[in-house]
Amino acid sequence: MITKSACLVAAILVISCHLSKAQDEGNTLSKVDDSAIAKPKSNLTYEYQYLNDDHTEGIEKSFLFGKLKTEIHFKEKGKFQAAKSYDTKTGRLLKTDTIVNFNRLVGTTTTYYANGKPKEMEHRDTSGVVDQYSAFFQGGNKRIVIHYKNGKRNGLLTEYNPNGTLKETGTYVNDKREGVFKFYDVRGQLITTRKFRADKVVK
Question: Secretion signal: which residues (predicted)?
């Protein structure tokens, strides 16, 4: 499962500080080199492009040694942002996020394989709490979908074989298997069922 990184949030907060400074200066497009305040020199630069006159909507980019590192789209006075992270060596997209006010992750965080296809997706409700997790095979087919509530697995779990057929289905209640779980072979044919109560098999 995708790890929530405090470092990501901290980095975004730092970026937001630079964003506020650039907005105050009233530039339509500006570059800010943080080498004057960062010791040792970080070689990290920022570029801001505003899409309206009051600077409430635009795109912020950061570059490491001249290579694109992050891209943040903001609008509605900072109430909504879409963030993208890139590999500065290859230029490929690593991760996308949706963010509220730079400090609460909502919507979907997606990580990607080298071929550009999604690897994992973690969806959060409006409070920032995870309510669904999905993972994919490198070819693009779904691998697993798990529903969450209050930080625990709650609801239907569906797991797939690489060819797209069902592998396992069942329901979790507070992180424990509850009720009937069904298991399938690679052709999607039912192999067996098991009944669980509080994560233990019952007859």
Answer: 1-22
